[in-house]
Amino acid sequence: MRISVIGTGYVGLVTGVCLAEIGHIVTCIDIDALKINLLRSGKSPIYEPGLEELIVKNMAEGRLHFTNQYNEGLIRAEVIYIAVGTPSNEDGTADLSALEDAAIAIADQISNDVVIVTKSTVPIGTGDRLKAIIEYNKSNDSVSFEMVSNPEFLREGSAINDTFYGDRIIIGSDSVKAAEMIEEINKPFQIPIYKTSIRSAEMIKYASNAFLATKISFINEISNLCEKLDADITEVAQGMGMDKRIGAHFLNAGIGYGGSCFPKDTNALMQIAGNANHDFELLRSVIEVNKKQQNILTEKAKRRFGSLEGLKIAVLGLAFKPNTDDMREAASLTVVTDLIKSGAVVSAYDPIAIDNARKLLPEEVEFLSNIEDAIQDADCVFILTEWPEIVNFDLELYVSKMGKPVIFDGRNCLDMTKIQELKIEYHSVGRSSIYLNHSYPVSPLPFQGNKK
Ligand code: UDX
Q1: Number of neighbouring beta carbons within 10 Å of residue 408
Q2: Which residues belong to the signal peptide in this entry (predicted)?
């Protein structure tokens, strides 16, 4: 099949490259000429394991092309995927301007019958709106087109794997023929396909992300309660997850969710609900809980030290999660800014997000190129991202570099037994703190009964 993909951001590029990998002839279009030049030279503009190799391979095998010209990119396309960004407006609504520009370019260029697929996350009803825009602006009256909504569920850092081994492919269309065509394109992935209406497909994407965000905020609230009642969140989550109705995934307590999707999509769904005169109270709380959760580590440190003024704090991990250089809505943005405001001296390390972090974090932050240098003579350590390198870092080095290390682990990722052995002071999320080689509940529940 001859496919064009508009937008070479995260979703567009991964989609285009993977469709080429399963045998389709794909042209990726982007208005950013610099990005297109970079891609033509076989380089990926984003960090994503395995992506660059697939770009090089599929270009060499003649299935993958890049252009910044709509006319060149859309000519003779049988299917056009729209995968441009839908960033947040100030009020939380999705900014659809790039999407509408793409629709107008399509209307201007199409010269044969075509199926138009929306990959971007869009408010419910956008498929209908795009259809009207294209119909109105179409320059060639003799061509016809059908709309499909085919939302993506890719996780950064494992996007290639998710494309090939995802849980489901959602194909929303009001045209049986168009849905069958997209089903045919996706068959080689061997992933269960579920066909719906366009609006249901658009809703599935928002509902899925909002549900996952809810799971995270829920477990974070339970972890806060565990601290107060001396239960251990790791055991609680494990025990809960054994119930198949709950599921074992997405029950890791920590300093809240970040990234390019959950914060943006939960806010957008709040706005969508509001516009439909529906007060989505539960989702509002999910968002609020997440904001509060980003502060818990700093609050613990303030309680522990009294003041953070002049304290040397090493921050390990800045990206919103491991295996990505993405800093969008990363908890580190809130945490580090707060630490600097509180007078702390911050040294920071991340395996690959430092270049992006430098542009966003306060200029007082000193960036180091390895963990050892970042923790040298620090008063305490904040772990914000569970990179394997940070999880597997030799704990004895904390002792030799810091003397009496104090660690605040925002991802519950260190080995508590080893920490106890080394007498390291350790504060995590939803678990007792380890202090002077003892484990202390935050507030023990007193026995108030009378002896019988
Ligand atoms: C997410 C969805 O998983 C994906 O399906 C969607 O299409 C895009 O958004 P992504 O943003 O790449 O993907 O990251 P994900 O792995 O889902 O993690 C999101 C955030 O939640 C991270 O900050 C992560 O640290 C946090 N998280 C995740 C938790 O705090 N606890 C968990 O148990 C899981």
Answers
A1: 25
A2: none
Q: Are 384 and 353 in contact (CB under 8 A)?
A: no
For 236-288, the pLDDT digits (tens) are 999 999 999 999 999 999 999 999 899 999 999 999 999 999 999 999 999 99
Domain span at 288: 209-452
Letter string b/e over residues 181-207, b meaning 16 or more CB atoms within 10 A of that residue's CB: bbeebbeebeeeeebbebbebbbbbbe
Q: Give residue 373 CA to ligand 1 midpoint distance, Å.
A: 29
Pocket test for ligand 1, best of 15, 257, 391 (most atoms within 8 A of CB): 257
List the strands of the sheet with 438-440, edge to edge: 366-367, 345-349, 312-316, 380-383, 406-409, 425-427, 433-435, 438-440
What type of residue is 254? G
What is the pTM (predicted TM-score) of this model? Answer: 0.93
Query: Is 209:265 a contact under the CB 8 Å cutoff?
Result: yes
Nearest-CA residue for atom 34 of ligand 1: 250
Nearest-10 Cα torsion for 437, 256, 216, 279: 140
Pair (321, 428) in one structural domain: yes
| Residue in 18, 261, 380, 413 annotated catalytic | 261
Which residues lie with the beta carbon below 6 Å from any ligand 1 atom? 152-156, 209, 212, 216, 250-252, 254, 257-259, 261-262, 320-321
Contact in structure between 444 and 229 (CB atoms under 8 Å): no
Of ligand 1's listed atoms, the one at least distance from the Cα of 260 is 11
Mean pLDDT, the chain, as a whole number? Answer: 94
Indicate whether 155 and 285 sit together in one domain: no
Domains contained in the chain, number: 2
Does residue 222 sit in the same domain as residue 170?
no
**Residues 276 and 395 both lie in one domain:** yes
Tell me whether 0.90 is exceeded by the ipTM: yes
